[in-house]
Specification:
alpha+beta, 4 helices, five-stranded mixed beta sheet, 17% strand, single chain, 173 residues
Length: 173
């Protein structure tokens, strides 16, 4: 599901971006879905709102599909692709073009990461899921949950097998 807004010219495919869970001290990265929304304007990365995160100005969180959208100017994308194509074709770039290429690369690399982390810091329970700590007394509840999960998996496998058998039988008839 995509969000359309005035000035949007296109969007990227989903990119998996590593983020840190702000609720824990863990250094293990979690991966979130990010889509780059290309715009016909330069997003105001310096503006902040809503808890000083920048949400609504240059990134937004779409709860329906648990995706973070980061706005990038279409001109930046086009110029980066043009310069990279020339560089990959062994065309000589001027000093100015090399500086521009490096600036575009930095923007395209860092902005999605910053937006993803800011969104995760703002909505950790929604984006990464709620953390539930079981007390020692809850060990029995944990076993019941694990048994229920195993039953659900077994039932799902059983239904998939039935579905495959039905599909096979209808193809041979």
């Amino acid at each position: 599901m995509e969000k359309n807004f005035n000035g949007k010219t296109g969007q990227s495919d989903v990119i998996k971006i590593p983020v840190k869970d702000p609720r824990t001290a863990s250094t293990v990265a979690n991966y979130v879905d990010v889509i780059l929304d290309f715009t016909d304007f330069n997003p105001p990365y310096w503006l902040h709102s809503d808890k000083d995160t920048g949400e609504g100005h240059w990134w937004y969180y779409q709860a329906q599909n648990n995706t973070i959208h980061v706005l990038i100017a279409e001109d930046v994308r086009k110029e980066f692709v043009s310069l990279m194509t020339r560089k990959n074709n062994d065309e000589k770039l001027t000093c100015e073009e090399i500086k521009n290429l490096e600036a575009y690369a930095a923007l395209l690399n860092s902005t999605p990461h910053m937006g993803a982390q800011q969104a995760t810091d703002t909505y950790p329970d929604y984006i990464l899921g709620k953390i539930t700590m079981l007390e020692p007394d809850d060990a029995k509840k944990k076993k019941v949950i694990e048994l229920n999960q195993k039953q659900i998996i077994q039932q799902t496998i059983y239904h998939l097998i039935l579905l495959l058998l039905q599909t096979t039988n209808t193809k041979t008839v």
